[in-house]
From TrEMBL, chain A:
InterPro entries: YdbS-like_PH. Residues 62-140 form the YdbS-like PH domain. PANTHER family: TRANSMEMBRANE PROTEIN-RELATED (PTHR34473:SF3), UPF0699 TRANSMEMBRANE PROTEIN YDBS (PTHR34473). The chain crosses the membrane at residues 12-30, 36-59. Keywords: Membrane, Transmembrane, Transmembrane helix. This is Membrane protein.
From TrEMBL, chain B:
Keywords: Membrane, Transmembrane, Transmembrane helix. Residues 157-167, 179-205 have a biased composition (Polar residues). InterPro entries: YdbS-like_PH. This is Membrane protein. The chain crosses the membrane at residues 12-31, 37-59, 247-268, 280-305, 411-432, 438-457. Residues 61-139, 307-390, 457-538 form the YdbS-like PH domain. Pfam families: bPH_2. Residues 144-209, 548-586 are annotated as: Disordered. The keyword Transmembrane applies.
Length: 153, 586
């Protein structure tokens, strides 16, 4: 079982900070143009959201695991509701590596695995070093191809 | 390249002219009012609008062309932005035909080709005549066989052979994946009937190669309408009530006199004048009963309109349905594209031993998804439904394993919490607003908590059959979902904090399906944590094993076939957008 790069916590915290700040700006605008909101509520709300985000990021990193097993990609995640997902290699449609702006800023990348199902049709493994992401993508592609080739004979 | 039927063009142009005319008329009226246009501005603009709109409609009609050639459907469309789309026929999941009243009068029909993936129907032919519908349907159904016989299509020959061998390989499969003499027999017979299918292309009367699986007679239809209560009917009834407000008031007035109220003015005055509680209660009960009766009638009428003349037939390895009173719907569902089979029984149906059967393919997409689409048998005796389900997807006797008893305690706790919450709300509302002192009546909600928890627990279960996973859930509407192992996509196990406390977990098995409402996911609720992991592992193992055995079955028919089928699982390719190739130019 492989865990995510520790810096993924920074990534998650940063995105929470951005989301909380967007909410803060909205609250500020509401305060300015519509209903008066107390100053402390806006600041306090921002602080609470960020603290929750930090706690969540730490817990999520501790729980997140993934593993390339014999027949399937196996992921374990979820802070509140814990979910493990098995994606059989035969069912992999295609694999992407993506790097969003915040990910680039902290030097990480994610791999997205697509299946044809309804739920979990795209499964993201965040917090990977870019080399590891590329390696993982190629490995998954090979596994997906192999699982077809060996079975077909 | 074919064009759509000229009559449909006439309809479209007429409709566009009307729209354009109205548009121009309103524009003109606005113009004369605000900018002092001369009086003839109105008719002139109306005429201009009509000409522009109908011209565009004509251009669209002329630009829209389609062709069935080899194993591809090509559709070219677009006036300004031109689009050309190619759909491999092997990828077509369903072919649906719709006829509204106007089209029925004109002898036309709208044909829709559904493939997996994508959020909309891939190709819509609006509209073609009935002979063309028949031709398209037969072509799609038999394209591989006809193709093989077709010697002139030299270029597409290699491809078509692949498709043919894949199809014939599939005919053996039910035998390979599980025992089902009927299924094997049917498909075998279907393959034998191959030649007669081609001849039925020209046959415009009955279709000799179809065997009737299910049909409604009037009485069964009414029974179905009665037992399949539509939750939407009361809402719809309520929404349309304001249209007949006079009648509503008359009925309410009648009710009021019936309970012995002395009416001097309108009913509303009597209601507002704080009438006696007992009279008001009877009045309310009476009115609600009448409303529910009306809703029932509406629900039945909707169901009858939707399912009038329902017929399900099987032709080769395709299911074909037909239904509808005003709008006729019909369609083909290839058996090999079926992802999962669902059997639904609501309380009433269970009481009388009936059930509903629905099949899911990866093709039905959100856009034209209707509540009942994909329903193969709306209502039949349970045994018949199971027999048909076994024909589609072979499975043995289902013996459901229930969740552990502690799951029931979990439901008990959950329902109690809900009842307590509602009581609290009732108390708050009563003490703050109503002040009747009757808030404790809400505590009666605790009474059904125990039976409700028990019933929920009792109706949940799962079974690992030889070739399928079966899950079951729901008391009011019990849903039994049957998923063949080789159709599984991802398998996941979830544990909420409450489940973790009791060492329980929920296992979900996903299949390829674009319906997010019904969902392609079969869920096994609240089983023991250990059982859940075991279940997950065995589902994974069986998926691998069953895919392997299907491939072995095919490799006998040629390696090309296995490659074809491997990518034939509707699953594959869709997400990649490989179902339909389209190219757009400006």
């Amino acid at each position: 079982m492989e865990s995510l790069h520790p810096r993924v916590r920074l990534l998650w915290v940063l995105s929470t900070v951005i989301q909380a700040s967007v909410l803060g700006v909205i609250a500020y605008l509401v305060d300015r143009f519509a209903v008066a909101l107390p100053q402390w509520a806006i600041v306090g709300g921002w602080v609470v959201l960020v603290l929750l985000g930090i706690a969540h990021a730490v817990a999520a990193h501790r729980i997140w695991r993934f593993d390339l097993q014999d027949d399937a990609l196996f992921l374990l995640r979820g802070v509140v509701t814990r979910t493990d997902t098995s994606v059989p290699y035969v069912r992999v449609q295609h694999v992407d590596t993506t790097r969003g702006p915040i990910e680039r800023a902290v030097g990480l990348a994610s791999v997205v695995v697509y299946t044809a199902g309804t739920r979990g049709a795209d499964i993201t493994i965040p917090g990977l070093r870019p080399e590891r992401a590329t390696e993982l993508r190629e490995r998954l592609r090979d596994l997906a191809n192999e699982s077809e080739a060996t079975d077909a004979v | 390249m074919n064009r759509l039927h000229p009559r449909s063009a006439a309809v479209r142009i007429a409709r566009a002219a009307l729209q354009g005319g109205f548009f121009g008329f309103f524009g003109g009226s606005l113009g004369t009012g605000m900018f002092d246009l001369p009086w003839f501005g109105v008719p002139a603009l109306a005429a201009l609008g009509a000409v522009i709109f109908s011209g565009y409609a004509l251009a669209r009609y002329l630009r829209f062309r389609y062709e069935l050639d080899g194993d591809t459907l090509t559709v070219e469309s677009g006036v300004f932005a031109r689009q050309s789309r190619q759909i491999p026929l092997g990828r077509v999941q369903n072919l649906d035909v719709e006829q509204n009243i106007l089209n029925r009068l004109l002898g036309l029909a709208i044909v829709r080709f559904e493939t997996a993936g994508g959020s909309a129907t891939e190709a819509t032919l609006d509209a073609v005549d009935e002979a063309e519908v028949k031709r398209l349907r037969n072509y799609v159904r038999t394209h591989d066989r006809d193709e093989a016989a077709d010697t002139e299509a030299a270029t597409s020959k290699a491809v078509s052979e692949t498709a043919t061998s894949a199809r014939s390989a599939h005919a053996d499969l039910p035998g390979a994946t599980g025992p089902s003499p009927t299924q094997a027999g049917d498909t075998q017979a279907g393959t034998d009937r191959g030649p007669s299918v081609s001849t039925s292309n020209t046959d415009s009367g009955g279709q000799p190669d179809e065997s009737l699986l299910f049909a409604f007679d009037q009485r069964e239809l009414l029974t179905y309408a009665l037992v399949s209560v539509r939750p939407a009917a009361p809402v719809l009834t309520l929404a349309t009530l304001p249209l007949g407000m006079d009648i509503v008031w008359a009925v309410l007035r009648f009710n009021a006199t019936l309970v012995g109220a002395s009416l001097s003015g309108p009913v509303i005055q009597w209601l507002l004048g704080s009438p006696e509680t007992s009279r008001l209660a009877v009045f309310a009960a009476l009115s609600i009963a009448q409303f529910l009766l009306l809703a029932l009638v509406v629900s039945m009428a909707l169901t009858v309109i939707e399912y009038y003349g329902f017929r399900l037939t099987q032709a080769d390895d395709d299911l074909r349905y037909e239904r509808g009173l005003l709008r006729r719907y019909s369609g083909n569902i290839p058996l090999e594209k079926v992802q999962s089979v669902t059997i639904r029984e609501n309380v009433l149906m269970r009481r009388f031993g009936y059930a509903t059967l629905a099949v899911e393919t990866a093709g039905y997409s959100g856009g034209n998804q209707q509540s009942t689409q994909g329903v193969a048998v709306p209502l039949a005796p349970r045994e018949e439904v199971y027999e048909l389900a076994r024909d589609i997807e072979p499975f043995g006797d289902l013996d459901f394993e229930r969740s552990p008893k502690r799951a029931r305690r979990r439901y008990l706790a959950r329902f109690s919490l809900a009842a307590a919450g509602l009581t609290a709300v009732a108390y708050a509302v009563d003490s703050l607003v109503l002040e009747t002192g009757y808030w404790w009546l809400a505590a009666l909600l605790f009474l059904p908590v125990v039976p409700a928890a028990h019933l929920r627990w009792r109706h949940r279960g799962f079974d690992l059959d030889e070739s399928v996973l079966a899950t079951r859930s729901g008391f009011w509407r019990r849903t039994t979902r049957i998923v063949p192992y080789y159709r599984l996509q991802t398998v996941f196990v979830t544990r909420s904090p409450f489940q973790r406390r009791r060492d329980l977990a929920t296992v979900g098995a996903d299949t390829a399906s674009s319906s997010s409402l019904l969902g392609g996911i079969a869920r096994v609720y609240d089983i023991d944590e250990g059982t859940a992991t075991e279940l997950r592992d065995s589902l994974r193992e069986r998926l691998t094993a069953h895919i392997a055995s299907r491939r072995r079955g095919e490799s006998a028919a040629g390696e090309a076939a296995s490659r074809e089928l491997a990518s034939d699982e509707p699953a594959d390719s869709d997400a990649a957008g490989g179902e339909a190739v389209s190219d757009e130019r400006d």
